[in-house]
Amino acid sequence: MVLILKIAKRITGCVLSVILIFVIYLFLGGKSGLAAAAVMIAVMFIVILFLLRSFLAQPKDLRNISRLLRLVLFFLLAASSLTGISLANHAMYKVMPVHVLTPWEKTYLYHEALLYKSSGGKSRLNYMSSLQHLSNGKINFYFEEADRKTAQNMILHMDGVTRIMTAMTGEFETVPVTVIFYRNPLIFQQNVPNHHFDSLKGMYVPRERMIHFFIGTSESENEEGLLKRFAHEYSHHMLVAYLESHGLDNRHLPRWFEEGAAEYAAVKSVRLRPPFRPLNIIPFKKIHSMSQWENANRNASPHNPYKQSYYAIDEVIQRNGGRTIGSLMLKSANGNFYEKFETAIGMKIEQFQVEFLKKEMEEFQINNAN
C-alpha cells in the first residue's frame, strides 16, 4: 500500500508539473517561450550534472541509485514537455498574432489541434468532412460557415487572376484545385509540408493540387488582403499546371522568378501597380533556391524578396511583354535559366538588377521631389 501511494505521488507530481508548464506557456509569446524553454532545460542539465557529481561521491547503494534515476526521469519528462509545448506555442505564433487571444482561447486551439492529431491518417478527411463545401468545377473550397462569403468572393476573383496569368503563358487547360481554410494555426501547420518560413499563412502543394489557406480572426475583415493571398497561391497552381501541360515541373525555376510572377498576378488582381519604395536589394542569385528564399524572408531579414521579385517581373513585362515569362519557363527547362534570361532580356541578371533598380529609384525621386 505504501509503495502504491509513493507511485501515485510521483505520477501526480509529474502530471501537475506538465500542467504548470502548459499554464505558463498560455501567457508566453513564441520567441519568449523558446527562450524560457532553453533556459529551463539548461538549468535542469546543470542540476543533473550536480546530482551526478554528488552521486559519484556517495556510496553506490540501491537507494541512492533509485533516487538518482527518479530525478533524472522527472527532469527528462519536464524537458520533453517543455520542448513539445514551446514548439507548439512557437508554431502558433509563426502564423497568427496570438497576443490578441486569451489563455482560454489558446487552450481551445491546443485542444482542437490535439483532437485533430489523434485522428491519425484520417485527420484531413475528417476535418474536411466537418467543413462546408463550394465548387465551380475548377476549384473546390472547404471552409467554416463564417467564411462562406470569402470563398464566394475568391471564386469570383479567380477569373481575373486567370486572365492575368494567361497573359503571361497563353491559353492552356487548367486542372481543378482544392482550397482548405484553417482557423486553427496548429492544424494549418500540421497540413503543410515542413518549412522554415516565418509567418507562413498560405501554401500551394503541387503534388496534392491543394492550397492550404490560414484565415486569422484579425484578418477576416481584410477582404483585399485575403484575395491577394489567394491570388498568389492560385497563381502558383496555374504556373505549375502550365508547366505540366508541357511535360515539365517547376524545379528548374529560380524561386524569385516563380514567386515574383505569382506576386505580380496577385498585386495586379486587387489594385494598380503600387508605388515603388526603396528596397534593401539582395542579388537574385542569392534567392535562387528554396532554402535561400526562406532565409531571405525571415522576420529579422532586412530584405523584402517578394516586393523585389514583383518589381523585377513587372520590369520584364514592361520591357518585353507578358509572354516573356511563360517563354522563359519553357526555354530554361534544361537548367540554363540565366543564359536564357540574358538572351530574352538582352542583359545579364546582374546588370538587369542594377538597371531596374536605377529606373525605379529615379521614378521614386521624381514622385517624391515635392
From TrEMBL:
Name of the molecule in the record: DUF1570 domain-containing protein
Species annotation: Fictibacillus aquaticus
Source species taxonomy: Bacteria, Bacillati, Bacillota, Bacilli, Bacillales
Origin superkingdom: Bacteria
TM ranges: 7-28, 34-56, 68-88
UniProtKB keywords: Membrane, Transmembrane, Transmembrane helix
